[in-house]
Amino acid sequence: MTTLSTLKKFKKDGTKFTCLTCYDSMFARMMEKAEIDTILIGDSLGMVVQGHDSTLPVTVNDMAYHTANIARSNKHALILADLPFMSYVTLPEAVANSRQLMQSGAHVIKIEGGSELCDLITTLAQAGTPTCVHLGLTPQSVNVFGGYKIQGRGDEAADQLLADAKAVVAVGAALLVLECVPAELAKAVTEAVAVPVIGIGAGADTDGQVLVMHDMLGMAHGRVPRFIHDFLTDERNSAHSIEGAFALYQQSVREGSFPTEQHQFS
Ligand code: KIV
User: Fold this and answer.
1) What is the Cα 108 distance to its own chain's centre?
2) What pLDDT score was predicted for residue 223?
């Protein structure tokens, strides 16, 4: 069973670890067999499961339902669950919604933002709930960004992101996710904080990697972002199976053959 202590040890030892999004029981079982280290019940389910154009319509009840499906079916991975859009604006609301996700089987609550989350992180930590802070391209803020764009480019933006990362870790964030930021910045953040950092479109130097499951099975919808690799049709997946794709992803991240330079941004 993977715990936060396991991930901390991985970081210390330089062992790269995996995360995949997952939303249902059957895939959770397959991920258990492939020994995927951590599972994220992402609010990306709004797009890949529910057919919305963004993560914004996803509710806390949706997240709780899918989290419970995974928690019943996978006893190996550390389970992260997203607090969805506008469900953590006030502290009382954030605490009640985190409780619902933790009671549904999450081990860690993921929230999007920067240093404005410090009070919430402290409150949850004191109440026995670890947090993972998602920085960079945070999809819940797509309307602020004006689209899904690379974040942290330029000195000012990079300094701000690094400062946010340090601030949330200082008050007790247990994990970070960095999405779509230049690889050099992701490396700097990973080296600057003591907690494990998981990257997506953030280069090879983060401690762990995460992909949306549907994307790494070649089911990306529309334009395929450069950080995605299709592990299902990869010739090294000789069984051409979904379980084989999960196992190949696990192996590729561990040995450092994924991601490569072609998957990263500068
Ligand atoms: O919701 C999600 O799937 C995510 C990942 C892209 C990190 O937040």
Assistant:
1) 11
2) 85
Task: Among 56, 111, 138, 200, say which to mutate for ligand 1: greatest number of ligand atoms within 8 Å of CB.
Answer: 200
Number of independent structural domains in the chain: 1
Collect all residues with Cβ–Cβ distance below 8 Å to 239 and sequence separation of at least 6. Answer: none
CATH for 120: 3.20.20.60
How distant is the alpha carbon of residue 9 from its chain centre?
Answer: 19
How big is the chain, counted in residues?
Answer: 266
pTM to 2 decimal places: 0.98
Where helices occur in 78-182 by DSSP H, the ranges are 91-103, 118-126, 142-145, 155-170
The ligand 1 site (C-beta within 6 Å) comprises: 21, 40, 42-44, 82, 134, 177, 179, 200, 210, 212
Q: Which atom of ligand 1 is nearest to the CA of 43?
A: 1
Structural domain that includes position 113: 4-263
114-140 confidence digits (pLDDT tens): 999 999 999 999 999 999 999 999 999
